[in-house]
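User: Structure please.
Assistant: Input sequence and predicted structure:
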Amino acid sequence: MDTTPAPGKTFVAPGVLITVAKLAALSVPGVLRMSPIAGGVNRLFRRGWAEGVRLETEGETVSADLFIVVAQGGNVQEIAREVQREVARAIREMIGLEVGRLDVHLEDIEATDPKGGA
């Protein structure tokens, strides 16, 4: 059996990168949800924008701004660092791209009900 890859390239749609980044960020304990990105109509015409994630790609490198809402009581600096680690890991392992800058924007802190409701 020949395991040599066929010639050609793999193209990853911006929506796939956004989904990977969102899922990785939401997997971090203390992150409640992604926050909408301010920008109104202008963001509708920019590639790589979605709720909570703004992406830029240059060659084989991805940079992102991640807009999150966290639960009250957590260490927001540690949560932000963990979001950076998880998103970078997911992009490298799942997509195979290098990660440049990952900026985390804390948009809000919300109290949560210990029984699971917000």
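The mean pLDDT is 86.
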